[in-house]
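FORM 7B: Structural annotation worksheet

SECTION A. Query
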Amino acid sequence: MSRIGEAPITIPDDVEVDIKDNVVTIKGPRGELCRRLPEGISATVSEGRIIFTRAAEQKKYRALHGLARALVANMVTGVVNGFEKRLEYQGVGYRAQMQGKNLRLYVGLSHDVVIEPLEGTEIEISDNNQIVVRGIDKQVVGQMAADIRAVGPVSPYWAKGTQWRGIKYVDEQPRRKPGKQAKIGVE
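SECTION B. Predicted structure
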């Protein structure tokens, strides 16, 4: 039994839900999102709630049941509140600046890196060393943040005290590894 899939999604007052041919369309104050449900999973709207059912009790359909419900719940949250990922950068010569809608990063490479936002996302710089990615689709916001982080990830070897160098999520703890000088069990 899928515990997540069985839970209904309550539809807020300012959200419209339309389900046709296994395609869920959700319209809200921030925009509109569409998603096709996996085969074997169906959704219905009744009494201000979205209820999901599966075609059979096979393991495949039980897994997709919870997945479909979670994806549609994220769509409802996205069109009402939106999603946000915050990254921070630190290091000698590390800079970021906006160039129109694009983000230009200087992260210790021989060249600057220009990142164009994915469709449905916005990028802004705040607090002098933070990059904020916003949008209504959770998957696209996460992908955009991962693309920015991949330009200059935090080095696990470079550290001085609490200092680190690279781009990381605000709530991420940089991983540390010992350098060559670390001796393991040698006397």
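SECTION C. Observations
The longest helix spans residues 59-80. The two ends are 56 Å apart (CA to CA).

SECTION D. Sign-off
Analyst initials: ____
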